């Protein structure tokens, strides 16, 4: 693999290495050019503990669960870059889904205390399914006060990272781990597709079908095996930080009702062990953001299922991804400076609201269920239908693009389908680009219009999937426009 240097990158080379080929209510742009280099390049790292107490709701299932403890800490991992003209913060949060309010509150405090503008701060949930509930989804609701606590911890983490800024060098790389990602939406024999929660037999694909089943035909889309990353080291060559991205939903396989940051945290620890000798005593931080993984998981549906001990599978996946980053890290060519830029835009999109007949049906189902806990899919989606009936006709969602050297990051507040991520990568004006999903807010799944036509779980209208059918195309176009802005 060729060495990577931000000023000498070939767009074709990076696309090959990675294996990838609406109306705005607000538009603000902040772009930095190389000529703005007014000081040495620096980076700072910090981790803030956000582990909640026992008895906190955990999102990630249809029904609610209360944690009985924590297998590993729930954290906000913070990386701050400073090129003398601009500061930029990258934050990953161990959570399934985070709404806009705590992210905005954290950014407001960060700006007040450090001067970093909100446009230059990217905050994203990793999508662990065993983290505390931060946004209402299905039968889970946040514990009062947790989102405020999260906002405080994110701000504290970034503030600490700023206080620890030190001279640094930067490089960019991209690996590929195809063996851990699989499309989870499958074409199967028509008689093997069950009725959806709305009483219809209109779906043409099935999410998470039975493994190695005779009904399987083929997956309904591709995967993205790329592992792009940004690396920081000290002038003496010691590793300082890595910010990576991988399009894998999550892994799971925890024990009981324990909180866990899933394979995202395992990756961070694995890469640290590989890159940093324990005796060095020098701080190092790895962050793994979630890519366009809305229809991607870790299950090979062509093969029979295997049994693993709790946490075993997520550690295996993390080790494989970390090993690829470690190998590619050895080939990097570090430089002393990189331009930093950011652009943000609020995009107005339509909402798929239920019809009057659908609301009447939902009320009837809930009346029949009575006071018993809701467990059947049709009951849970009936409840979602009533919530959606009170939604506005349109919503405003935050989009963001960042430039770090010749790397572009497209931040999207949804569970983005892989096809959208691949399209943004292919058409980006910057040599290495990747989407960060679940960034800066949460607005449900983002299927393409073609996938909406196929139906399936990710398209079923609920608080987890409600944007207009054309939303993916509007977001793709707007993201590319923002990437053009930061490149200018």
Q: Notable features of this structure?
A:
single chain, 488 residues, alpha+beta, five-stranded mixed β-sheet, 27% helix, globular, disordered N terminus
Poorly predicted regions are: 1-38
Number of helices: 10
User: Strand arrangement, largest sheet?
Assistant: 1-20-21-22-24
The beta-strand count equals 25
- Shape type: globular
Radius of gyration: 22 Å
Amount of helix: 25-40%
Number of domains: 1
State the distance separating the first and last CA atoms.
Answer: 29 Å
Mean pLDDT: 92
Describe this structure in words.
This protein has 488 residues and is of the alpha+beta class. The chain has one domain (6-185, 216-351, 391-487). The chain is 27% helix and 26% strand. It has helices spanning 11-18, 100-114, 146-163, 262-275, 312-329, 356-369, 377-389, 418-427, 449-454, 471-487, and strands at 23-30, 42-49, 57-58, 65-66, 69-70, 75-82, 87-93, 121-125, 166-167, 169-176, 182-183, 185-188, 206-207, 216-219, 226-233, 239-246, 258-259, 285-290, 296-297, 340-350, 394-404, 407-411, 415-416, 432-436, 445-446. It has a 5-stranded mixed β-sheet with strand order 1-20-21-22-24. Strands 8-7-6-2-9 form a 5-stranded mixed β-sheet, with helices on one face. It is globular and about 65 Å long. Residues 1-38 have low confidence and may be disordered.
């Amino acid at each position: 693999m060729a060495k990577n240097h931000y000023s000498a990158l070939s767009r074709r080379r990076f696309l090959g290495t990675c294996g990838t080929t609406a109306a705005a209510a607000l538009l603000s742009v902040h772009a930095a050019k190389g000529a703005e280099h007014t000081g040495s390049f620096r980076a700072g790292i910090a981790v803030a503990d956000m582990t909640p107490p026992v008895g906190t709701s955990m999102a990630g299932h249809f029904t609610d669960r209360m944690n009985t403890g924590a297998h590993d800490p729930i954290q906000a991992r913070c990386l701050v870059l400073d090129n003398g003209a601009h500061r930029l913060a990258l934050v990953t949060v161990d959570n399934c889904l985070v709404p806009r309010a705590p992210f905005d509150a954290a950014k407001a405090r960060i700006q007040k205390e450090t001067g970093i503008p909100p446009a230059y701060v990217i905050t994203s949930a990793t999508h662990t399914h065993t983290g505390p509930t931060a946004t209402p989804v299905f039968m889970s609701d946040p514990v009062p006060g947790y989102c405020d606590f999260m906002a405080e911890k994110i701000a504290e983490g970034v503030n600490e990272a700023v206080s620890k800024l030190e001279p640094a060098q930067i490089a960019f790389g991209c690996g590929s781990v195809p063996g851990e990602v699989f499309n989870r939406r499958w074409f199967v024999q028509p008689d093997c597709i069950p009725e959806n929660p709305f009483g219809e037999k209109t779906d043409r694909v099935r999410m998470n079908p039975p493994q190695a089943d005779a009904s399987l035909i083929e997956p309904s889309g591709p995967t993205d095996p790329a592992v792009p990353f940004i690396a920081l080291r000290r002038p003496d060559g010691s590793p300082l930080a890595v910010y990576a991205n991988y399009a894998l939903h999550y892994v799971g396989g925890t024990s009981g009702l324990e909180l866990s940051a899933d394979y995202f945290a395992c990756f961070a620890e694995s890469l640290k062990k590989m890159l940093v000798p324990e005796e060095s005593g020098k701080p190092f931080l790895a962050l793994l953001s979630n890519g366009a993984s809305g229809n991607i998981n870790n299950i090979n549906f062509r093969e029979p299922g295997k049994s693993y001990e709790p946490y075993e599978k997520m550690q295996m996946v993390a080790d494989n991804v970390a090993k690829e980053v470690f190998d590619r890290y050895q080939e990097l060519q570090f430089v002393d400076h990189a331009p930093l830029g950011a652009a943000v835009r609020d995009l107005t999109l339509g909402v798929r609201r239920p019809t009057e007949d659908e609301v009447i049906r939902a009320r009837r189902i809930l009346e029949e269920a009575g006071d018993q806990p809701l467990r059947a899919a049709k009951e849970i989606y009936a409840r979602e239908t009533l919530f959606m009936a009170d939604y506005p006709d349109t919503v405003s969602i935050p989009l963001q693009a960042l430039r770090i050297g010749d790397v572009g990051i497209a931040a999207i507040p949804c569970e983005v389908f892989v096809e959208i991520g691949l399209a943004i990568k292919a058409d980006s004006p910057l040599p290495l680009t990747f989407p960060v999903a679940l960034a800066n807010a949460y607005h449900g799944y983002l299927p393409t219009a073609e996938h909406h036509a196929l139906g399936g779980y990710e398209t079923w209208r609920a608080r987890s999937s409600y944007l207009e059918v054309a939303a993916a195309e509007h977001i793709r176009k707007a993201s590319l426009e923002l990437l053009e802005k930061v490149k200018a």
